[in-house]
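My main concern about presentation is that the manuscript never shows what a single data entry looks like. For the editor and my fellow referees, an illustration may be useful. For illustration, here is how one protein appears when written out as sequence plus structure tokens:

***
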Amino acid sequence: MKTNETIKWQEEQALQRYQLIAPLLDGSLDNAKRIQLRETIAELYEYSAVAEPPNLLE
């Protein structure tokens, strides 16, 4: 059963993730600018700019 606290945390996480990727959804960005922006975001938030495939053997 989800508590109000859990639901609030989930909504906050979803909002943070959306805010993180929202600039990349701008259709007016050319590919070079989108790649540069993705790398900048990855560096700022200490994420990988290239998603690593999941390890299905774990």
Q: What stands out?
A: DSSP finds two helices and no strands in the chain. The helical segments are 4-21, 31-45.
